[in-house]
Write a structure and sequence with these properties.
Helix content is 7%, strand content 46%. With 56 residues, the protein is mainly β. The mean pLDDT is 85.
Length: 56
């Protein structure tokens, strides 16, 4: 049995126990944020078209 789903926006649903983070908050209303995982730095970028790109 799976966890119930919660609607968070148009056509977007996540499981209740999954953390949800706003990309604009992560970038502090800019276009880029750095994310660190196991000592490796990744760049999260919001494109002009409003898409997300995550690069190492």
């Amino acid at each position: 049995m799976t966890a119930p789903l919660t609607r968070i926006g148009p056509a977007q649903r996540v499981e209740d126990d999954t953390p949800v983070h706003d990309a604009r908050a992560l970038t502090q209303d800019g276009a880029c944020a750095r994310i660190v995982l196991d000592g490796k730095v990744y760049t999260l970028r919001i494109t002009r078209a409003g898409k997300l790109i995550l690069t190492k």
